[in-house]
Specification:
Layout: H1 3-28, H2 31-47, H3 55-75, H4 77-80, H5 90-94, H6 99-110, H7 113-124, H8 129-136, H9 140-160
Helix pairs in contact: 1-2, 1-3, 1-6, 1-7, 2-3, 6-9, 7-9, 8-9
């Protein structure tokens, strides 16, 4: 491994570390688990350097890797046997979100991963449906359907909690 290979993980972490952490948090809804997933993604890149055509390719690869690890987390023994604790997450303290944003983020995180990842990539990372389809390796129509269903689910949950006001 040459010096450039070693630097790719550090460069990627400095450029996209927060992005990967936010993506993982939106999928798992637990800040410490999101940190672990983020660490795994960058350790994997360090151990097995990839060749990227540009920064967008690198970002897409990192997000895909994070989403795959989130899927594994949701299937894991650790997730199934997790105990809930009353805690103020560091994500809430370190991000500039309003309380309503936190409610929405919590709702997104509570959705199945197939919906939360599409919502996150579309609204927070501002990818197009075509780009999301490429990242998730799904058909564009599938991504569009998932996005519509996710929006409906979030809207219903927010209406139930009376956090959503119709205009």
């Amino acid at each position: 491994m040459n010096e450039t290979d070693k630097d790719i993980a550090l460069y990627a972490f400095r450029k996209y570390g927060d992005t990967v952490l936010r993506a993982a948090y939106s999928c798992v809804g637990n800040y410490s688990e999101a940190e672990d997933i983020t660490q795994d993604v960058f350790l994997n890149l360090h151990a097995k350097p990839q060749i990227f055509t540009d920064d967008n390719h690198m970002k897409a690869w990192l997000l895909r890797a994070a989403i795959n690890r989130c899927k594994n987390y949701h299937k894991s023994y650790r997730k199934r046997n997790q105990h809930s604790y009353d805690e103020v997450s560091e994500a809430e303290l370190s991000c500039d979100f309003t309380p309503q944003d936190n409610t929405i983020r919590e709702k997104i995180a509570s959705l199945p991963e197939k919906y939360s990842s599409v919502l996150y990539l579309y609204y927070y990372e501002e990818y197009t449906i075509r780009e999301i389809a490429g990242i998730l390796q799904k058909n564009e129509n599938t991504v569009s359907s998932l996005l519509q269903r996710a929006r409906k689910k979030i809207k219903l949950e927010l209406e139930e909690d009376e956090c959503y006001e119709t205009v």
